[in-house]
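Operator note (shift B, R.M.): manual run for DNA polymerase IV requested after the automated queue skipped it. Running by hand, logging everything below so the morning shift can see what happened. Input copied straight from the record, untouched. If output looks odd, do not overwrite the archive copy; leave it for review.
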Amino acid sequence: MSDAAATPRRIVHIDMDAFYASVEQRDYPELRGKAVAVGGSSRRGVVAAASYEARQFGVRSAMPSVTAARRCPDLVFVKPRFEVYRAVSQQIRAIFARYTPQIEPLSLDEAYLDLTGRLAAGATATETAAEIRAAILAETGLTASAGISYCKFLAKIASDQNKPDGQCVIPPGRGEAFIAALPVHKFHGIGPATAAKMKRLGIETGADLRAQSLAFLETRFGKSGKWYFNISRGIDNREVKPDRTRKSIGAERTYSEDLHTLSEGQDALAALAEKVWRHADAHKSRGRTVTLKVKFANFQQITRAQSLPRPVTSEQELLDTAQTLLAGVMPDPRGVRLLGITLSSLGADAKKPSRQLDLFE
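Run finished. Output pasted below as returned.
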């Protein structure tokens, strides 16, 4: 079938509106109505989140702070408070739990909910999504947007259609038509490089994608070809998984001054290892694979990884492994502007070989 099954699911994707920036504007009234960027304002800083007032000037997350300040001279930079954001996120998830236990968080500010078979008598998924959004606003003072559909792919796309503080429903029978008119660069999971490749192949909309054969797509996009073939027809059978676990735990930092010596780099890794290990402890997770990320001053980036025969047993072992990996790439005449450590191949029991988990949060 090209659309939903005979008994369609009721999937809702809830996405908080400019979450980090909105929390700051909520807690600090003097920021309301102003262009706000959460992140460092230094020459090496990066925007973690931008308020809608800032977005009107083209300020976006992951943008270098110097670029953001150039686009919006009145931009107010605010230091991130991740402990606060996590606490608010837990408050929001408690609201979700009133409606369904089938909750799949994607990050602190978004999640899938499966309401199939859990709607109140006479209620629709659309009405329930509006009720959830109203509860979030009443209890946290923050707005959320929602997408409602019969599959996760469409629910995710729908939540972005009427932002901020809105919702959109794509019912069964309309999935293919909605996708046909949508530019492929707006498809969740299709990044700029893939969208550019598709454009070179004459694929610019969902209709263009649907016109391609499975063999054509698999030849040019490998394993992703079948996924593109299906979503262009409104087919996505993935379930909402409430038990999804982090696939990796990582931390990185951009430095205000380039690091040039190995000792500087190894010293800098200590804070990153501490942060990663703290989160691993909080989630009772251990991992076998340590990955080092290095971005040089010219923005070229490399990664180096080492997989151990059993899970890393301590913060010191995590740090030692990362420092050993760094010794293979530093010193470098370009200088290093960013370092990152990721722990993956996660499992809950350090005494047993860990298994690869589903997706990262």
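Quick read of the result: The chain has 13 helices and twelve strands. Residues 262-282 form the longest helix (21 residues).
Leaving this for review. - R.M.
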